[in-house]
Amino acid sequence: MNLPRIHDFLRSHRHDSGKFQPAETISKPFRWWGLRRAKDVVLSHERRRLVHFNVTEHPTAGWTAGQLVEACGLEETPGHLIRDRDQVYGEQFSRQARALNIREAVIAARSPWQNAYAERVIGSIRRECLDHVVVIGERHLREILLKYVDYYNGTRTHLSLSKDAPKPRTVQLPSQGRVVKVPRVGGLHHEYRRRAV
Hints:
The chain is of the alpha+beta class and 197 residues long. The protein has helices at 6-13, 23-26, 61-74, 91-99, 116-128, 138-154; strands at residues 42-44, 49-52, 80-83, 103-106, 178-184, 189-195.
């Protein structure tokens, strides 16, 4: 089986990205980008909506505390925050949570099922998005995830929400036109909606 080499891939996709970066960035494809960094998401439990995300190659407790402030500035501040025992949540993060009147619930060691919603969304990001793209850099990853979060919140159905999206959608009647396919996340996923002819 003759598989394409990474150089062939890069040569054929150099026009797809605004700023093409050489293969050295790809030599450490996600280096936990998109996996650990995507864990720095804020998820609303009531409708499984992704409220905030950000990525960085070198997370620190200060950076993570800043993400908490950014997330709370977008929404009303949650009363509780469930998190794991990762070292990136240091004392600075805990002080910031207390300053925002957020009670932290730290899950037990090696117990991801205690934070099932967050683990599920991390798995969805990985399986439905990052496993199908080659990330060229941090900015590229942020752009991909921004599109995926928009798709996740507005289009992707959830069985727990009676096959609705986190942002509720209206029912489209047959009288509204024929069904058309709308590409989402750069064509990785599709949304089907009715459009008048």
